[in-house]
Design a protein that fits this description.
- The protein is an alpha+beta fold and 321 residues long.
- The protein has a single domain, classed as Glutamine Phosphoribosylpyrophosphate, subunit 1, domain 1, CATH 3.60.20.30.
- A hairpin with a 4-residue loop joins strand 2 and strand 3.
- Helix 2 runs antiparallel to helix 3 and helix 7 packs antiparallel against helix 8.
- The longest helix is centred in the first third of the chain and has 23 residues.
- It is globular, with a radius of gyration of 18 Å.
- About 3% of the residues have low confidence.
Length: 321
């Protein structure tokens, strides 16, 4: 019998990408919050749980944080409703599941986790709602006061702002940057058995046309194999056009190092004037993040030390750890 050698678990999370943060006080609070989520999620990996279980838990915690555009705190679409999308990919089984434009649900990632065992593994709004009723998942209203006031303010301005803030600040503090963020949350994990998984969840880009589909429920925005796993954030259409997550993972599968795959993919995205970011892990435990936007809210740990991208220089960055 062959035994798999144990590896040091690794974890990286993100809370979106954008063009600005609200100052050093905001950075300190964000860092504390992200590191707290890292610690709670990593405790599962330390206890021997699977990468997939850790990804689900990390996504739940990020969805529950109202400052992020996923789960509670999701942005409102053009009709004033919240519709969320999420996906999960088990790298060992190379199996993807997702939900598209679901409503009245606290944690879309939980429904996605259930779909991993189903024959039909990607459901849209009506089908996902039917499944939630079958599973007796409680009805939940994810709209926060900040997001509602944000929508009302933009409605008065004829929805001229094209994107929701990366972080939901009080309305009186926002509105000065019409392209302030691209909100998504994501988690990528490597467990002690060497298994990889990735999960991504979003409330969308805000004020969008009803029926618009996010990259977060596609392999373009969330992809994993036995060799690498990636979760993306940014403008969904840009991520879809680059097929970013799948592209990075396939390049690793073809023999590139994770760093080289990230650098090449982000160089292409920069050339094409895309606005996006990504977090990634490979089977050797290399951690990386990259961005074309000024800000990506990424934080990572190997169990011994933490790091983040909150104060990284503007421009494309790739950070192997």
């Amino acid at each position: 019998m062959r035994y798999r050698s144990m590896v040091q678990p690794k974890l990286i999370i993100h809370g979106g990408a954008g063009s600005s943060l609200k100052g050093k006080g905001g950075v300190a609070a964000l860092r504390e919050m992200l590191y707290g989520i890292l610690d709670e999620t990593y405790s599962l990996l330390r206890a021997g749980d699977s990468a997939k279980a850790a990804v689900v838990r990390g996504c739940q915690l990020l969805e529950n944080e109202p400052r992020f555009n996923a789960g509670t705190g999701s942005v409102l679409q053009s009709d004033g409703q919240v519709r969320m999308s999420a996906s999960l990919m088990d790298g060992t089984r190379q199996q993807f599941s997702g939900v598209i434009n679901v409503s009245r649900l606290k944690n879309p990632i939980e429904l996605v986790e259930y779909l991993q065992q189903e024959r039909d593994r990607v459901l849209s709004d009506y089908g996902a709602a039917e499944l939630a009723r079958e599973l007796q998942i409680p009805i939940y209203d994810p709209i926060t006061d900040n997001r509602l006031q944000e929508w009302l303010q933009d409605r008065q301005d004829n929805f001229r702002r094209s994107m929701a803030n990366v972080i939901a600040e009080p309305v009186e503090d926002e509105g000065k940057d019409d392209n302030a963020g691209r909100g998504t949350i994501g988690v990528v994990a490597l467990d002690a058995q060497g298994q990889l998984a990735a999960g991504t969840s979003t409330g969308g880009k805000g004020f969008e046309r009803i029926g618009r589909v996010s990259d977060s429920a596609m392999p373009a925005g969330n992809y994993a194999t036995r060799l690498a796993a990636v979760s993306c954030t940014g403008i969904g259409e840009d991520i879809i056009d680059e097929c970013l997550a799948a592209k990075i993972v396939i390049r690793v599968s073809d023999g590139m190092s994770l760093q080289a795959a990230m650098e090449k993919s982000f160089a292409e995205a920069t050339e094409h004037q895309r606005d996006l970011g990504a977090i990634a892990l490979d089977a050797q435990g290399n951690i990386a993040w990259g961005k074309t936007s000024d800000v990506v809210l990424a934080a990572y740990t190997d169990g011994d030390r933490h790091g983040d991208s909150l104060e990284a220089n503007p421009g494309t960055q790739v950070q192997p750890i």
